[in-house]
Amino acid sequence: MSTSLILLITMGVLMACGVYLMLDRSLTRVLIGFLLLGNGVNLLIMLTAGPPGNPPITDGVNLSTSGMSDPLPHALILTAIVITFGISAFMLALIYRSWRLVRAETIDDQGEDLAEAQEQSLRLAEEAQTSESQDDTEFGDEADHPVPGAVDLDDDGTPEERGDST
């Protein structure tokens, strides 16, 4: 199967530009980046469909599967177009709402927001009676640093009761 080098390069450029634009704080650039990335993915799916020119069912002469083109990638492209349209409409509504509320379409980190987030993480750590240096305690009494007084959900007893030497 030979693929068109121009389509491969175009797909790569679309995806690279789309990812670059999605990393910006401007919502309009994020939307344009999402559209470019969606079109790049559509080209990728089209390139996996097989050689161009084959009919989707049969060519009428060769009734074997070698004379057919796989119709699944075409259906996937149509589905991707619909999903891209829906997400684009949602993003446009977010951009419009952001513009109406704050007269700006960029997302900025404000110092007050960052300070509040840090205070909240400290409050959560104090409530859990853990520090950031401790490991995760998702395994209850089998954890390296179990939370004192936590409910033992596995009902198999503590490691001392089971006779584990770990």
TrEMBL record:
TM stretches of this protein: 6-23, 30-52, 72-96
Entry's Gene Ontology cellular component terms: plasma membrane
Gene3D superfamilies on file: 1.10.287.3510
Keyword check for Cell membrane: yes
Record keywords: Cell membrane, Membrane, Oxidoreductase, Transmembrane, Transmembrane helix
GO molecular function: oxidoreductase activity
One Pfam family of this chain: Oxidored_q2
Region named Disordered: 112-166
Uppermost EC category: oxidoreductase
Principal place of residence: membrane
Membrane-protein topology: Multi-pass membrane protein
EC number from the UniProt entry: 1.6.99.5
Taxonomy, superkingdom: Bacteria
UniProt key word Transmembrane: yes
Compartment(s) of residence: Cell membrane
Record-linked InterPro entries: CPA3_antiporter_subunitC (IPR050601), NUOK/Mnh_C1-like (IPR039428)
Family: Belongs to the CPA3 antiporters (TC 2.A.63) subunit C family.
Protein name per the record: Putative monovalent cation/H+ antiporter subunit C
